[in-house]
Amino acid sequence: MSLVERVRALLGQDAVLEDAKAPDGVPRVAPASPDAVALLLGTARSEGWRVRVEGSGTWMPSDAQADLALTMRRLDRVPSIQPQDLTATAEAGIGFDMLRQQLADHGVWLALDPPGLAGRTLGSVVATATAGPLRHGFGPVRDHLLGVTFVTGDGRLIQSGGRVMKNVAGYDLTRLQAGGFGAFGVIALVHLRLRALPRVDQTLLLEGSREDLSRVADDINAAGLSLAALELVSPSLARRPRWALAVRLAGSAPLVAAEEAGLRAATGGLLAPLRAEEAHAFWMRAAEAFATRPVTFRIGGLPDSSDELLDLIQHQVGDEWVSASPGVGTLRWAGEATVERLRHLRRALAALEVPLTLERAPWPLRRAVGHFGAYREGVGPLVAGLRHTFDPGNALAVAADSDDRAG
Amino acid sequence: MIAPAVIDTLSQIVGRPHVRTANAERATYSMDGLTVHRRLPGVVVLPGTRDEVIGVIRLLAAHHIPFVPRGAGTGLSGGALANDDAVLLVLTRLNRVLSVDPVNRLAVVEPGVVNVKLSAAAAPHGLLYAPDPSSQTACTIGGNVAENAGGPHCLKYGATVNHVLALEVVLADGRVVQLGSPGGEPWGPDLAALFVGSEGNFGVATRITVRLLPIPRAVRTLLADFASLRTAGEAVSAVIASGIVPAALEMMDKSCINAVEDSVYAAGYPRDAAAVLLAELDGRADASVDEDAATVEQILRTHGARSVRVAADVKERERLWLGRKKAFGAMGRVSRDLVVQDAVVPRSTLPDVLEAISAIAARYELNVSNVFHAGDGNLHPNISFDSRIPGLRDRVDEASGEIMAVCIAAGGTITGEHGIGIDKMRYMPLLFDGDSLAAMRGVRRVFDPAERVNPGKVVPLHACREWAGVA
What we know:
Helix content of chain B: 25-40%
Radius of gyration of chain A: 21 Å
Strand content of chain B: 15-25%
Structural class of chain A: alpha+beta
Number of domains of chain B: 5
Strand order of the largest sheet of chain A: 14-11-13-12-16-17-15-18
Radius of gyration of chain B: 22 Å
Structural class of chain B: alpha+beta
Strand order of the largest sheet of chain B: 15-12-14-13-18-20-16
Distance between the termini of chain B: 28 Å
Shape of chain A: globular
Shape of chain B: globular
Oligomer: heterodimer
């Protein structure tokens, strides 16, 4: 029995997407439930199949060497939205735009604005921990998760966390999945922490040279304002002639008014408000532009090293497609890069104690340098042990390790 | 028992005064804040430096001796208790705030730093450390990390895991690893976040880098009182659904109110109220905080508050909070023994769950007081009793089990901030299936293959279905 016949016998005729074969000819399988994902991966383990996982196919290239592509596109339901509790449970294959819309219909909001196209799946955002500018005000992806259900590489369905605000029952496997790049299993279901839709959502913008805007960003940081986002965006990304410093305020009308007053005081009123549709277009364009370049990475330094890191990036790989959060110290870059260039940059950053996480790239590059690169001393065996715990047969095709492994 | 030769070597590492072997000395460490569990450790060791911690752990690894890390011993799950075949590694002498970086708003501390002392060190820079468990005047940051401690203000600011950026950890075999980074971006998978809340099972944190926040310039504290617990629970749901995120939203029931009012921590809570809610709003600007406070006050009134009092000044605010934070202590006067529970439910289920708990208390003829983080749905039903009365302890255990079952049935969990320790292991199979428990055990064995660090805690082994990844 061929692989396709075996999968059809397991999951039904329509589980194999005949008209949507991957470009490399790998059969694409779309289970319709977490249990079906578990059944598929359990069989993959026993049959020795190597599996790559896909979301909507708009972020990570579906090009890892594998025997089958597991697409999550049929796990796109939102079983629960509880506006009175500010929680929701969603399947991992739902597009972020669809999820956002369904939440908004209930008056609630997931305060994440990940890079990429609007239809990126929730599972992709969680697995890669790709937070956007809202990280400044609302924290990294992990802070929005209450729990996950995931399937290990050998087909076990594991529950972690729950749907309540606080939970310390057992080890926090949820946070291990956030940013695990699929190394520790396939995320099937996500319990989310929500916020009420902000009554007021205001973006203000200032254009100028990078150096001038960095100084303004320092002044804003020093003022200790409660901002939703503070983002320094390169001209290409902002589609503007010069660099843009964007500030987003979100919350109740009194809160936004107070913070806007604080912003004026800190900057001398330099930033100009955008109309709502302008603001929406600005943030959306900046997010989507990352999906147009072949390689994306993020680095995480300290707020006071933002400028130094931007200089380093400019020097090493160019700063045409860059978005930095100077209040947090993170920076996202997009463009074209070679293995050697990335390794060189990683070494330079490591000397500054700054990690570089490769978010997306063609498989040969991912495989060569890995999402994480060389681990620090003693950490490599821990990651390898966790990989073995959650994927003992090494069935999942992920680039958690690399040729640069160490430790 | 620990071999005399090992004790001698421990003394050489940390100094003889810092190795406690006498029965009376060890008995001091036989309990944590949940006094219903008692274990006498084999020996108690108090290292004074990071290098001494490493030396002790390497020695114990060489002799395959289990050990239990411990902070101030204020935990409430029996998590920091050691048997007589184990060494209790007390970290309270590692109590230095190593650095405060006001520009990047972070601090590096040793694990034995007391929670409030970190905020005190940050205060001159206009900063604070947000997690504020009720035991914050005694509990240590290392213990907070082990338990992922919360506190009233984690409603707005998050629990310990949201504030830990990086960790230096000594593993069970004595290897030292660096997890996370000062900027908060994980260096690889987020092992720092995985470590937080692992209850000492993954090793010992010797250096902890935490995020600091600006001290809010404007704070408003409201006290609302209600004629029924259900009404108070409904008011909590209404505040949360409004979209305003209070810094804290705490509830106390009548039994707790009176325990506080009878104590030296009397805060002026109305004794005839079925429940009081303590709501705090904070921010950078007076005007916006005033508006939000007015909105919350209006919500509380329209949802059944008999009265709403706004603290007139800092002194009154501190008094209102002292009563809340010392409520556990005040309840200690009510009876000889106290079981402190810790469960979390979806906030909208609070009215029903509180009624169900009252019904359980009535059925078992037990005195259950509720003091809890209502805004998070984090309940602390506390059962006061006298364990000398034959059969009463069994009744308390049965009632506790029923309370947990009610919380789980409501979609909740068995602990929000106190941890599993030994106290809640029996409930873990109610929450997790065998595969999920086995996966947790597998993770633990990645960090500690021989399961020597804080053995016998968190994951009940008999419930794990063994599988290849664990064996």
